[in-house]
């Protein structure tokens, strides 16, 4: 059984794996589908069943400790109790499975706090599922809600970081910007590095213009810092709003 469960955990992160729930296709009624782009799934997108889940995915996608994701990965059948005494079997498909750098796997459900309060025996079901995942797969199972996902300014910082994520089409100078940050003596403010870089801002040459126009809203050093933080190469203080004056720290050993 242990070998079979280990193979199952490996299979849910394989390229050929398909989500066991189809969100937004009339099969389930929990909210509206939100397409969340991420390079941590083979398809490049997760169909979140709610805004809460999409915000939860933002945490996972920007977390360098999370290497892979699997949406609606598997269905488990676990022992429960009907009235606190009579045993019965229940089935459940968790919202997401996250593989960490140490190859451990965490299963997560996203359930609003008010829904938890209104659902009879909710925490008993959570405890039963947690026991099942621990005993059968040696994995952690948790439920996340607004209290952990929507803490500010952390969530806004993660949204900002995510907008600067690496893309296939990015300026070649961004590679140079990342290398400059890697060579910097930390801790240091983002602005300090940016002010010393002669290519921090991008420019565009419009048709008919003789000279390129500087794009003041862009800053390649800031973008590079955000990308390196999501890779786990540098650390930022997410308890304060991220700005050009934010400090860049070394990652704790």
Between the first and last Cα atoms, what is the distance in angstroms? 37 Å
How many individual helices? 9
Q: Give the helix proportion (percent range).
A: 25-40%
Low-confidence stretches: 202-206, 211-217
Helix and strand content put the structural class at: alpha+beta
The share of residues in extended strands comes to: 15-25%
Give me the side-by-side strand order of the main sheet: 3-6-7-8
Number of strands: 12
**Shape, please?**
elongated
How would a crystallographer describe the biggest sheet? 4 strands, mixed
Give the H and E element order.
HEEHEEEEEHHEHHHEHEEHE
Computed Rg = 22 Å
| Mean pLDDT score | 88
What would you note in describing this structure?
The chain is α+β, with helices and mostly antiparallel strands and 253 residues long. It has helices spanning 2-11, 51-62, 113-118, 122-137, 146-149, 154-163, 173-183, 190-196, 220-231; strands at residues 34-37, 45-48, 66-71, 76-81, 87-92, 96-100, 105-110, 140-144, 188-189, 202-204, 213-215, 247-248. Helix 2 packs across helix 6 (154-163), helix 7 packs across helix 9 (220-231) and helix 8 (190-196) crosses helix 9. The longest helix is centred in the middle third of the chain and has 16 residues, at 122-137. The protein is elongated and about 70 Å long. The model is unreliable at 202-206 and 211-217 (pLDDT under 50).
